[in-house]
Amino acid sequence: MLAKFNLYDFIGVVVPGIFFLWALGAVLDVSALREVLPLAGGIAETSVVIVVGYVVGLLLQGISQQFTERLLVWWWGGFPSARWLLPEDQRFTKRYRIEVTTSLRARFQINLAEERLGDIPRPEALKRAQEIFYRCYRAVEKASELPQTFNAQYGLFRALLTTFVLLLIVSSSRLALTYRDGALSAPGYLALGVAIVGTVVSYWRVTKRGEDFAKAVYDVLLASEPQR
Prior knowledge:
The protein has 228 residues and is mostly helical. It has helices at residues 7-28, 31-36, 43-76, 80-83, 94-108, 112-115, 122-140, 146-180, 186-223.
């Protein structure tokens, strides 16, 4: 069981879950949440924190996959991993694209020219390009830990983006209520500011790590090409 608890589980699930509960307790000043997350304790207390963080992190990942990622893909115009294979995309140099195309043909008998991704509707082209990318990823996932590391960090920042957006909603609502009651709250403004900054920075990082993950897969694919 412990062998299956991998890097992604810890970085992408447990960490966001624990942070969300702690931040929610701080913003709402809920003592019960602070009691669930003891800062010091023995093995039993640490185990409880990990279990609670894991469960909450799974819920955050479910929300981030269902809503946050869909919004990101729409905003990006497709996953970088798929978008970069489209003929009109300019991310890769001409030489690098030729190398990737040659590797795809040699390893998977996939000819990008014959796929004619530029001549079919973009949603269908992106779907087919993503299928090709997943084949590349499955072929290299045991050759290097770099793609898995970037993917775990992508999951972490995607969950953190979801977390900060939720905290932004909560802190805004709480601040609006205090303002309506005529009570200005400096901690409330601070929480709102932190949520805004966290949302922006998390968006920057999830975008960068998504690109790093895609590039790492293609790099490892080329680096592991059998020598002729």
